[in-house]
């Protein structure tokens, strides 16, 4: 994966094991959310968004975040449509395009076009204003997934990275806050975003373990058991569906008849308040 991103600070995550017998292990959970359950908004002409969490004018106190993830929006921009200049601060914004081309420009001098097979990370830092539009001259909509992550390092300058992802099945690291990982840099030292691809009816590669994992199905479908063993119920998730996973839930994931492509967040701590 070729990376255009300058290195930034952060500490590698070092997991701490609880003392033997001191913590009772809670049963994991795989919470399936269908794409049709998302809150639907039209924030501008030609713009359609489905929100996984509370966002802007939509607020549900029971659904404000998962792990360190603050937003996961499915966006569609019609030809000529997009977001005028608007401002963000202290947020990691990660974009993955499904179809079409998304043009990005910000007031820190960063500009790029995100197409299928590329990933973009915008570290907003102390503040940045940017525009996001369907690429000029396009005759088809652009559809993309945009995810917001809480950083654990504040006060830095804005940053930007764009990377090309190779074709092929398997597990590909897209972005990470851990030192030494060859991926776009996140300002969250215990989080990473993976792309997972598998052909029809094949098991997914071994997925990273974490207290919080979030799956968003991009294409195809995936079947899984809610928990390991015979007590785990069978479930299937398709395009736009998501699964919020804690502990050892989401067992034996297997691609469906058309294979699967999904995004997987690996997160070791939740959102921090105060």
Question: How do you describe this structure in short?
Answer:
The protein is mainly beta.
Structural description of this entry:
It is a single chain. The chain is mostly beta strands. It has one domain: Sandwich (Jelly Rolls), CATH 2.60.120.10. Helices cover 0% and strands 49% of the residues. It has no helices and 20 strands. Strands 1-13-10-7-12-5-4-3 form an eight-stranded antiparallel β-sheet, with no helix packed on it. Strands 2, 14, 15, 16, 17, 18, 19 and 20 form an eight-stranded mixed β-sheet that branches. The chain has a four-stranded antiparallel β-sheet with strand order 6-11-8-9, with no helix packed on it. A hairpin with a 4-residue loop joins strand 8 and strand 9. The N terminus is likely disordered.
Helix and strand arrangement:
Blueprint (H helix, E strand, L loop, with lengths): L1 E3 L24 E5 L5 E3 L5 E5 L17 E9 L4 E7 L3 E8 L2 E5 L4 E4 L3 E6 L4 E7 L7 E8 L9 E6 L5 E7 L7 E2 L5 E8 L13 E14 L8 E4 L4 E5 L4 E17 L7
Parallel strand pairs: 14-15
Antiparallel strand pairs: 1-13, 2-19, 3-4, 4-5, 5-12, 6-11, 7-10, 7-12, 8-9, 8-11, 10-13, 14-16, 16-20, 17-18, 17-19, 17-20
Mean pLDDT: 91
Which sheet architecture does the biggest sheet show?
A: 8 strands, antiparallel
Q: Record the strand order, biggest sheet.
A: 1-13-10-7-12-5-4-3
The CATH superfamily is: Jelly Rolls
Question: How many discrete domains?
Answer: 1
Characterize the quaternary organization of these chains. single chain
* SS class: mainly beta
Number of contiguous helices: 0
Q: Could you estimate the helical fraction of the residues in percent?
A: under 10%
CATH topology: Jelly Rolls
Instruction: Give the CATH level 1 class.
Output: Mainly Beta
**At CATH's second level, what is the architecture?**
Sandwich
Strand content is over 45%
* Amino- and carboxy-terminal Cα gap: 37 Å
User: Low-confidence segments, ≥5 residues, pLDDT <50?
Assistant: 1-24
Strand runs, count: 20
Could you give the order of the helices and strands?
Answer: EEEEEEEEEEEEEEEEEEEE
Radius of gyration based on Cα positions: 18 Å
């Amino acid at each position: 994966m070729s990376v255009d991103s300058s290195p930034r600070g952060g500490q590698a995550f070092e997991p701490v094991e609880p003392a033997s017998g001191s913590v009772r292990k809670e049963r994991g959970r795989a919470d399936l959310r269908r794409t049709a359950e998302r809150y639907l908004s039209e924030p501008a002409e030609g713009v359609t968004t489905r929100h996984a969490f509370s966002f802007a004018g939509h607020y549900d106190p029971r659904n404000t975040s998962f792990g360190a993830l603050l937003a996961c929006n499915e966006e569609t921009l019609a030809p000529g449509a997009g977001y005028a200049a608007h401002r963000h601060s202290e947020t990691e914004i990660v974009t993955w395009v499904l179809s079409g081309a998304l043009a990005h420009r910000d007031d820190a001098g960063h500009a790029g076009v995100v197409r299928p097979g590329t990933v973009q990370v915008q570290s907003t830092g102390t503040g940045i204003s940017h525009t996001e539009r369907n690429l000029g001259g396009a005759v088809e909509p652009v559809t993309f997934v945009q995810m917001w992550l809480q950083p654990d390092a504040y006060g830095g300058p804005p940053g930007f990275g764009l990377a090309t992802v190779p074709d092929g099945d398997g597990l590909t690291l897209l972005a990470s806050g851990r030192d030494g990982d060859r991926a776009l840099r996140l300002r969250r030292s215990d989080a990473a975003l993976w792309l997972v691809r598998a052909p029809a009816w094949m098991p997914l590669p071994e997925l990273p373990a974490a207290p919080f994992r979030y799956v968003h199905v991009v294409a195809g479908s995936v079947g899984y058991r809610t928990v390991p063993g015979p007590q785990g119920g069978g479930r299937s998730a398709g395009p736009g569906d998501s699964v919020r996973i804690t502990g050892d839930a989401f067992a034996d994931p297997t691609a469906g008849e058309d294979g699967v492509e999904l995004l997987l967040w690996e997160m070791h701590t939740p959102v921090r308040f105060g």
